[in-house]
UniProtKB/TrEMBL annotation, chain A:
Leader sequence residues: 1-24
Gene3D superfamilies, per the entry: 3.40.50.2300
Record-level GO BP terms: amino acid transport
Protein source organism: Gemmobacter aquatilis
Pfam families in the cross-refs: Peripla_BP_6
Keywords in alphabetical order: Amino-acid transport, Signal, Transport
Protein name (Swiss-Prot/TrEMBL): Amino acid/amide ABC transporter substrate-binding protein, HAAT family
SUPFAM superfamilies reported for this sequence: Periplasmic binding protein-like I (SSF53822)
Family to which this protein belongs: Belongs to the leucine-binding protein family.
Domain Leucine-binding protein span(s) in chain numbering: 27-362
UniProtKB/TrEMBL annotation, chain B:
Spans traversing the lipid bilayer: 20-39, 70-86, 98-116, 142-162, 192-214, 220-240, 252-279
Keyword line: Amino-acid transport, Cell membrane, Membrane, Transmembrane, Transmembrane helix, Transport
Claim: Zinc is one of the keywords in the record: no
A cellular component term, taken from the record's GO annotations: plasma membrane
BP terms from Gene Ontology: amino acid transport
CDD domains hit by this protein: TM_PBP1_LivH_like (cd06582)
Lineage, broadest ranks: Bacteria, Pseudomonadati, Pseudomonadota, Alphaproteobacteria, Rhodobacterales
Membrane disposition: Multi-pass membrane protein
Species of the source: Gemmobacter aquatilis
UniProt family annotation: Belongs to the binding-protein-dependent transport system permease family. LivHM subfamily.
Protein name: Amino acid/amide ABC transporter membrane protein 1, HAAT family
Subcellular location field: Cell membrane
Primary location group: membrane
From TrEMBL, chain C:
GO molecular function, one term: branched-chain amino acid transmembrane transporter activity
Assigned GO CC terms: plasma membrane
Location within or outside the cell: Cell membrane
Membrane topology: Multi-pass membrane protein
Lineage, opening ranks: Bacteria, Pseudomonadati, Pseudomonadota, Alphaproteobacteria, Rhodobacterales
TM annotation in the entry: 33-51, 58-78, 84-104, 111-129, 161-180, 247-270, 282-306
UniProt-recorded name of the protein: Amino acid/amide ABC transporter membrane protein 2, HAAT family
Keyword Transferase: no
Length: 393, 289, 326
């Protein structure tokens, strides 16, 4: 980053700092989410829950929050342009959002260089809180490895020794499966085969299923999300494989958002995720009821990211943060008990530390529901090359 | 694994299933092109519309209600498109057609989002076709066998119509030379309309049968467009035989490429298309010449 | 034959003055949009060169742009080249790739040409998407901007970068116009009208087509370098066929085969996109409807429409044609 640009930004920061001193209770939030494109439904869930979170917790912070929304269209260049707009034109105090890891990768340097705190409300790529970590980027959602690693040991403990893995061939797919494989083999399991169907180009998983069936594995472990998750689960069931070869996976596979479309095919699938709407705790009960009342939908894991992002922001403001600099310093220090359980931020990486819930999709009174089988203890991710500057922490 | 007979049977069935689905889509597109010289990029959107209609109707009338009514709904939409956009652009050249139908894709994607929302939806396989059938030593989903059978039935019916009936003879004459056909007293306009609407209905049918296997999403029309175009270009535009050949080649290359050469799979089909175009610039079995 | 009619010269001057004036007064986001317009303008000039004048409607220009962007970024980051040598390398690579594609597709015409270029574009996309060398789906960051501090220009400043991008549009336009006026350009236009005749006259058709395609590819590669420098981050989405499709839309919206029209189209498209997307997330539908309306109107895009209206107002300058480019 060049000196002039830095100087200009520094000037901007001081001028906004002086402005915010005048009216300390105004926090301008830039919400960067996909409102169109393949992740539009996710963006809407996060948006609704973020607004709900601000309405629920914001009142007793004494601050007023103004939200500026921008659509990143799931396109990295668009996300970057909108980020620059939010930072330089709207002069927001804090940014919240980012569903796609590609968009996060694109805006990372800009956010870091401008010194604007960013609360990541979804994107799970490991690098964001690894080698590309930043004191200004706090992740309140999850990391790809976090969700999958503990499942390896748990499955071995359940007596599953040989596994075949399938995931789409792109960065997130690789990270999810690699983290699982690491956990699984460390606990004594064996991965007997792997398939990597082309991402977003594979509609028929039949060819890959045949290989899984012939591999001699005890179970299949997969990661898919969105439309691919629906197709995969249905096709897995249609080949009659669920009975002889149980299906396990990363919890996005049978997300509450998609399980209705999967229908009975999803019954009995066991997956692990950091949130399911059926978690039994008072915070979650309140959240589910409020979200249902507001939107008519059951909250997904994406919704909880939005809700907790709002909570984290409010906690930071309560701790005395008023502008970019103080928010950036306060955000990594927040900790609270939310719908997911006890949350804190790992100071070494600014990634969230949270329990992981293993759940089975079962038939309930009105449609499919999630039965929590186990809650695996919270575990901080390895530092993975993250060198956090000491000055800010 | 590859020495096991079951593997080859299973993957051949998978390939056939994909081929037949693509055949249902591409045959309408290719005959419309052969007859009217009209490039309809929005054909994939008609397929998506068929899938959404089938999913919605299945909720009310059951699977078969969607199966029979969705193609009709898509045909009706096709008729509307024909009279508003297609007919006046028939002589406007391929550029105008490509762009108008490209614009239609944009409109169609957002229209489905507005009507059905952003979340993917799914429908169940009809009860009669649930489960698997033992076939040559493998267990294969009955619904997929139904797709293969349906594709073959449509192929047989179309072959019969095109080769054995007067309408078929008129269409073949129109593909060869539409002006000459008009001179012979064939009502070319009416024939165009008929072929266009039937092509749309087949795209709708493809959407309806694909809906229980895949997830129904706003961008499914865009996703299927490129494979469909590859099929008709490899096969040769305008011919039924070309659509069959193109569908089979695509289905088999895609399926066996995925399991035997996973690293090259996504490049494989494009390389094949390029190779075909270099050796035979008009595709393998074009309608003319 | 490509000529600079008074109308085209007027439009060019207006575009140049307007964009430069705007570059000096615009706020931050205006400058971002200006750079975006400039990059799109370079791509559509490149596309109009082959599609509008040579009849080679390409759906791989997005991929050529992407190859330029990736080559630039990799050359600058991994190979450690400074920005200008990296740009030269990237442009040369895009040109080379375009030459090969042009040579292979030279025999195909019409829809077959479109499909063949689509196939090559998708091959490049799949290759970049899958290769871990290029960061796959996550893309690559850290593309540098050229260092012009020696002459007192700081390209990390948005204003300077926007002006630099406009200068590159001007350069692109000059290259395209010079190409069209050269022997090659005349052959290209001739090929579009009657390929058989030119073949009979002894022209090596494939070589003319491939060379024209290579020049167009070089310009697309330049657009790619600028795109990489602008966002300083690249992802496989740059190579997607929808980028090519969008470029084609812009060419048509502006006016096919006018070279000036596509620039007008780029301005309209980017501004419309930003204005409408601020109003509704369903802006694609509105852009689609505008596109349909423009094509249905049978005008050759916005600029083509103006040209046709101006031409209708005065008698045809039949005799002036020969000395128009003198």
């Amino acid at each position: 980053m060049n000196k002039t640009f830095r100087a200009a930004l520094a000037g901007l920061v001081t001028s906004t700092a002086m402005l915010s001193a005048a009216c300390a209770e105004d926090i301008k939030v830039g919400l960067l989410l996909p409102y169109s494109g393949v992740y539009a439904a996710l963006g809407q869930d996060i948006d609704d829950a973020f607004a709900l979170g601000l309405a629920t917790f914001g009142a007793d912070s004494g601050a007023t929050f103004e939200i500026v929304r921008e659509d990143d269209e799931v396109k990295p260049p668009v996300g970057l342009a909108k980020t620059k707009k939010l930072i330089l034109q709207d002069e927001v105090d804090v940014m919240v959002g980012v569903v796609s890891s590609g968009v996060l990768g694109a805006i990372r340097d800009t956010v870091d260089g401008a010194g604007v705190p960013l609360i990541v409300a979804n994107a799970g790529n490991d690098e964001a809180t690894g080698e590309a970590c930043s004191p200004f980027i706090t992740r309140i959602s999850f990391s790809n490895q976090q969700v999958n690693r503990p499942m390896g040991k748990w499955m071995v403990d359940q007596g599953v020794k040989k596994v075949f893995t399938i995931a789409p061939d792109y960065a997130a797919g690789r990270q999810m499966i690699d983290a699982f494989t690491t956990g699984f083999t460390a606990a004594g399991g064996e991965v007997v085969g792997q398939e990597w169907p082309a991402f977003q180009k594979t509609q028929d998983f039949g060819p890959f299923l045949a290989n899984a069936k012939a591999s001699g594995a005890d179970a299949v472990y997969v990661f898919f999300a969105g439309g691919e998750a629906i197709s995969f689960v249905k096709q897995y069931d249609s080949f009659g494989m669920k009975a002889e070869l149980p299906l396990y996976g990363s919890g996005f596979l049978t997300s509450a958002l998609y399980v209705e479309a999967q229908g009975p095919a999803a019954e009995g699938v066991i997956t692990a995720l950091h949130y399911v709407p059926t978690l039994d705790n008072p915070e979650n009960a309140a959240f589910v009821a409020a979200f249902k009342e507001k939107t008519g939908r059951i909250p997904s894991e994406y919704a909880v990211h939005g809700y907790d992002s709002a909570r984290a922001l409010v906690e930071a403001v309560k701790a005395g943060a008023t502008d970019r600099e103080t928010l950036a310093a306060a955000l990594p220090k927040v900790s609270f008990t939310g719908p997911r359980g006890e949350l804190r931020i790992d100071p070494a990486t600014n990634n969230i530390v949270q329990p992981i819930h293993v759940y089975e999709t079962v038939a309930g009174a009105d449609g499919l529901t999630q039965k929590v089988l186990a809650t695996l203890p919270a575990e901080a991710d390895p530092v993975n090359g993250c060198a956090m500057p000491a000055a800010v922490n | 694994m590859t020495t096991d007979l079951g593997f080859w049977v299973l993957q051949t069935l998978n390939a056939l299933q994909l081929s037949m689905l693509l055949f249902l889509l591409s045959v309408g597109l290719t005959v419309i092109f052969g007859l009217m010289h009209f490039v309809n990029l929005a054909h994939g959107s008609l397929y998506a519309f068929g899938a959404y209609m089938a999913a919605s109707l299945a909720g009310v009338l059951g699977y078969w209600g969607g199966f029979f009514l969705a193609p009709l709904a898509v045909a009706a939409l096709g008729a509307v498109l024909y009279f508003t956009l297609i007919r006046s652009q028939r002589r406007a050249g391929p550029m105008a057609q490509v762009l108008i139908t490209f614009g239609l894709i944009f409109v169609a994607v957002d229209a489905t989002r507005l009507i059905w929302g952003d979340l993917p939806i799914g429908i169940a396989v009809p009860a009669v076709f649930e489960g698997q059938l033992a076939l040559l030593g493998v267990e294969y989903p009955i619904y997929r066998l139904f797709i293969i059978a349906l594709g073959l039935a449509v192929l047989a019916a179309l072959t019969l119509v095109l080769t054995r009936t007067q309408v078929g003879a008129m269409i073949r004459a129109g593909v060869d030379n539409d002006q000459m056909a008009a001179c012979l007293g064939i009502n070319v306009e009416r024939m165009f309309f008929l072929v266009f609407v039937v092509g749309c209905a087949l795209a709708g049918l493809a959407g309806a049968v694909a809906a229980p296997v895949l997830s129904v999403t706003p961008d499914m029309g865009l996703q299927i467009l490129i494979p469909t175009l590859i099929v008709i270009v490899i096969g040769g535009l305008g011919s039924l035989k070309g659509a069959v050949a193109g569908s089979l080649i695509f289905g088999f290359v895609q399926t066996f490429g995925a399991v035997l050469m996973p690293t090259f799979n996504s490049v494989l089909i494009y390389a094949l298309l390029a190779a075909v175009l270099v050796i035979r610039p008009e595709g393998l079995l074009p309608a003319k010449g | 034959m490509f000529t600079h009619t008074p109308l085209r010269l007027t439009a060019l001057s207006l575009l140049a003055i307007g964009s430069l004036a705007y570059a000096f007064v615009a706020g931050f986001f205006g400058l971002e949009i200006l750079a975006e317009i400039a990059i799109l303008a370079i791509l559509v000039i490149a596309l109009d060169l082959v599609a509008g004048f040579g009849g080679m409607v390409s759906l791989c220009h997005g991929a050529l742009l992407g190859v330029g962007a990736y080559a630039f970024t990799v050359a600058a980051n991994a190979a450690g080249l400074s920005a200008f040598p990296a740009m030269v390398l990237a442009v040369a690579l895009s040109a080379g790739l375009a030459f090969v594609i042009g040579a292979i597709c030279a025999r195909s015409i019409g829809i077959y040409f479109i499909m063949a270029t689509l196939a090559f574009g998708q091959m490049a996309y799949s290759f970049v998407f899958q290769s871990p060398l290029f960061g796959g789906d996550d893309g690559l960051s850290g593309a540098p901007r050229p260092d012009l501090s020696a002459i007192g220009i700081d390209l990390t400043d948005s204003r300077a970068f926007a002006i630099y991008a406009i200068a590159m549009v001007a350069l692109t336009y000059l290259v395209a116009a010079a190409t069209l006026r050269s022997g090659l350009g005349r052959s290209l236009i001739g090929l579009h009208h009657n390929e058989k005749r030119l073949r009979a006259l002894g022209l090596t058709v494939w070589r003319a087509k491939a060379t024209a395609f290579a020049i167009s590819g070089a310009l697309a590669g330049l657009a790619g370098c600028l795109a990489a420098q602008h966002t300083q981050y690249i992802s496989p989405g740059l190579l997607s066929w929808t980028v090519s499709g969008e470029a084609l839309v812009v060419v048509i919206l502006g006016g096919l085969g006018t070279l000036v029209g596509p620039i007008v189209g780029a301005v309209l498209f980017v501004v419309l996109k930003h204005e409408i997307s601020a109003l509704t997330p369903y802006w694609h539908a509105i852009v689609g409807m505008i596109l349909i309306a423009v094509v249905m109107s049978r005008a050759n895009g916005v600029f083509g429409f103006v040209e046709a209206r101006m031409a209708a107002r005065k008698p045809k300058p039949v005799l002036q044609k020969a000395d128009a480019d003198a």
